[in-house]
Amino acid sequence: MKNSDFTGQAVLRRVSDLPEPVRAVLWHVAYFICGMLFASASNLSAVSPFGVAFCAAAENKYILSAGLGAAAGYILTQDSISSLRLIAASVCAGVLARVMREFEKVRNGRLLPSCIAFLSCFLSGMAVLFANGLTGETFLLYLGEGVTAFAAAYFFSTAQYVLENGKPVRGVTLEEASAVLGSGFLIMCSLSGLTVLEVSPARMIMVFGVLFFAAIYKEAGGAVGGMLAFLLIAISSDTGAVSASFAVGGLLAGAFSRLGRRAVPPAFFASFLTAYMFSGGGSEKYFLIIEAALPCAVFMFLPNSLFIKTEGFLLPKDSAANASAENGEVRRRIHAARTAVDDIERSVSAVSKRLSEMESCAGEKLMLEVQSSVCCGCGRYDFCWEQNFKETRNALDEMYETLKKGGVMSRDKLPSPFSSRCIRQTSFAETYSRLFFGVVFSEAADKKTDEVRLVTADQFGGISDMLRDLENEFNGDVSFDTKTAERIRKKVRDRFCCDTDFVSCLRDKNGRMFCEITFSEVPSSLNIGELRDAVGETCDREFELPVIKGDRSVRLCEKTAYSVESACSQIPADNEKLCGDTFESFYDGRGNYVVILSDGMGTGPRAALDSAMASGLMARLVKAGFGFQSALRLVNSSLLLKSRDESLATLDIVKIDLYTGKAVFYKAGAAPSVIRRQNGKLLEIKKAALPAGILRDATFSSCEGQLENGDTVIIASDGAYEYAHNAVKEELQSGGAKRASTKAKNISLRAKKAKGKARCDDITVIALNISGRARREQKI
Q1: Distance (Å, whole) CA 526 – CA 431
Q2: What pairs with residue 558 in β-bridges?
Q3: Which domain holds residue 429?
Q4: What are phi and psi of 600, to 5 degrees?
Q5: Where do the DSSP E strands lie in 588-691?
Q6: Residue 86 lies inside a defined structural domain of this protein
Q7: Are residues 408 and 521 in the same domain?
Q8: What is each CA distance from 679 to 412, 683, 711, 771, in whole angstroms?
Q9: pTM, to two decimals
Q10: pLDDT tens, 534-568?
Q11: Domain with 525 in it: what CATH number?
Q12: Are residues 591 and 717 both part of a single domain?
């Protein structure tokens, strides 16, 4: 059912498909019937203003039909004098409405029909009053009739506007919904005389209206709906003071609606029953209890989707347009930030390259230093540096190579050009040796600075890639549902008494829903299963258990089609207490299961530090929603900057989409992975790429495939494959163990055994068993 099915416009569209003469006849018949029902809705002898009010509110082309219907209703339900007065008032109301709408300044006035209805009823009553004699009681009676006509005409005109124009963009306000509800209640009141064993189906429908109003519009809706039911039932029937029970029931139903829509019927019926007993209700009016109990019972079992769609139609949707504008602004700012970071990366790289070109080599620097500090002012300067520059330059290069190889430079070890003609041999040798070490250290520092500068540029590039990932996500892969997010926020507050700082609800391009909730404070006691059920009830969908993010945030994704059983077995290298391999496995809250395995260079604590840094950084970036390639750039630059010593680590990643079963493997220097199909067939995933932390331009080699129910994925470090490649395959082909933990343990033990006396590397084996659930149609 679409939201538009709740509107009067849906009926109007169907009617508009009929031929014009047929449509005209149907509309006139509808106005005639409504006029007749409204005229007969009152149970008070001479006071029945609703037919007059309807004539005042009817459109010009339907005034005649409404007037004829009202006249028929008054003739059928009133005595001759009263019917004559009320028919005259209806004619007066119709004529005045028709005439006043010719004046442009007043034709669109909201209170014009109300004023016409009041004057028509009050003046006709005064005419009868002056003819029969003026008394205070009758004056107040006709004044009350006029006031009732004033209110009824306002309700009728507002309801007519809503039904003809449909729901406005801002939603149906409580005022507009009350007008439609009151008009419907009046029709039900006129039909309340039709009973089955004294039980009125019309009044049962009115109870339904009160319950719906309380569930949708909360306290205000329950109070308004209950009061309307009380007043109209009191006017149209002889239930007496017992009808006040409807007002009390509506008020309490609205108050308890914050606990969920299933709390509305018990609250209504309990308060209704209490008020019924205190207002003098007895066994002779048992039918009122039945009329309240049956709708409450049926209301309890109505599908939650009906209420969600009703709220979607009635409540304001101004947030949708705002959300679209906000999303556009977010995309624009992300694009601007990405462009700026790209410019910074290019600028830093260009400047670094230019500075490297401008910087002289160490030998050139050393030559200039010696020339200025020793030879300047020497009488043989021109002979050495002008006439025989080439020989001098070659001799200096020879000295540079000698010191670079660890040699010592002294007066007796100077090359032949200097030993034969230099008059400052001792000073020249000592100064050159001293300056050599300073220049070399300076060159090493400059080289390190260049490396840091380039790695910093890489980090800017990684940030740019991350911003590009966010930009692509905002550009159409997801859409935000701010209205559902607001319902979740209210549900969490009412159900768990927890305030939230942020609630996000989004749908991907396939219509799957994802929610994220950030609480204002750390919940002291919150059952995540109950939270999942509450969010699912609000959204009319099934969700997985929440993924906890930090202390105050959780993320939920819609129920997936596949599940993963994972297990890991690790064996440290010989004589090592700490395994040099580190792994992370997690649900990302978007319907994906991710496993990250990193193998640090070597074994022991140093390897464990590198692998923990690589896998930890990668996991944090992926959980934050960034892509694997962009995350690798930051991980790689972090390893390059971590220390002076070489730091490298392999990365072996698999991401499994639990909605479709699609698996993507990312490898950077990692060992092969193996997929064992349910039929026993083995598929090896082998991709060549350098580990992170070696070169600046690190990239993943990737491939993807489809997993099915019963498949097993094995991810392992090179310690499990180096000497035991065949043993791993044999273990998988043998079938044997079903549980992932047993598979991982058996493979790791066979790998260790297969190595024999060879030096053992760290062994890590991760086994993933894929289970498929029954496929369900995704809700869009």
Answers
A1: 76
A2: 543
A3: 358-470
A4: -75, 160
A5: 592-600, 649-657, 662-668, 673-676, 682-685
A6: yes
A7: no
A8: 82, 12, 9, 14
A9: 0.53
A10: 899 888 888 988 888 777 888 899 999 899 999 99
A11: 3.30.70
A12: yes
